[in-house]
Fold this protein.
Amino acid sequence: EFRPVILCGGSGSRLWPLSRELLPKQFIRLTGERSLLQNTVLRTLRHAGAARPMLVCNAAHRYIAMEQMQELDGAAPGGSDVELLLEPCPRNTAPAIAAAALRATRDGDDPVMLVMPSDHVIEEGPALDEAFELAHQAASEGALALFGVRPTAPLTGYGYLRTAAGARPWQTVEAFIEKPDAERAAAFLREGGYYWNSGMFAFRASIFLHELGRLAPDMMASVREAVLKGSGDDAIFTLDPRAFGACRSDSIDYAVMERTDSAVSVPLDAGWSDVGAWDAVWDIAAKCPQGNSSSGDVMIDDSRNCLVHSTHRLVATLGLDDIVVIETADAVLVAHKSRTQDVKRIVETFRSQH
Ligand code: GDD
Ligand code: MG
């Protein structure tokens, strides 16, 4: 059995203007009736033989998180029964996972954690079950297991890993490179033998804490203090703002996976997408024969391969190819589909101006 830890503290700024500070993408109903977070929780309960999930999120999002969990009542046994771990400020994934591991071991347990990002879409089926089972086995034996996805393009937003066959049914990670530049990513694809890191991890809580303590002792000390001085109970726990605020910000990928010798990779061949930007949303969306995907009050005429989303007004397009239009109450994005990875730049620019 896994102890699932679901990370939902990201900002999802490449999905602006739908993804906002107060409603980041994991809480948005992007692909249908449920949000990415809700689907992640259900997926975990269905496929990971999982105990009560722990949600780690920014304290500012506690109410939306609670509300979305309540909506899952009845959708899965124990669907809404989660433990909330609240961060007073974002410090990226390494401190978030460390805090979760410390909380998960508080009664002397040492569960195998399944760390799940909440910004993915995965096809559910036997391939996923199999991957989870292998990862559980590897983690029980003391490895830091990750899930390797076969890369399809030299994208720079992912971690890459090179693997070697070992004596066990999983592979040894020989090298891990987080977010390489375009040149290196292209070289990895040419060379072959590289996988993308899916962003999900499985390990024993104590093993992760030991590795982080060795590789980032300062971070470990801050998180330990933030848990020690934190407040709450089994349902909701808030990390101490001062101690957590003093913690260095870093992701598990840079802080641990690039530097550990204990990583292994389990192949994940299950239709995985991280819905990082609007082009990925278009990829996985239902489309008409002309390749357009629309939602809301939209009229599309003589246009191909567009993504058009409206929330407040009628949006009409004419003679467009490969264009993304996202209309919201107070902001509209019009972008070429090939440039949607750069939407982050717009958000960063006006964040620095206001
Ligand atoms: N609780 C919490 N606190 N969660 C966070 C925080 C934080 O400070 N920052 C990010 N998260 C959550 C996000 O909501 C997301 O679900 C997950 O952690 C991963 O963070 P991202 O910011 O989306 O990471 P990434 O996409 O750039 O990179 C990671 O995922 C890729 C695959 O999608 C890395 O693991 C890459 O190596 C990997 O390829
Ligand atoms: Mg991501």
Observations:
- The domain at 2-273 is CATH 3.90.550.10 (Spore Coat Polysaccharide Biosynthesis Protein SpsA; Chain A).
- The chain has a mean pLDDT of 93.
- Residues 7-10, 26, 56-57, 87, 90-93, 96, 117-119, 157-159, 178, 196-199, 253, 274 surround guanosine-5'-diphosphate-alpha-D-mannose (ligand 1) (CB under 6 Å).
- Residues 89 and 155 are 29 Å apart (CA to CA).
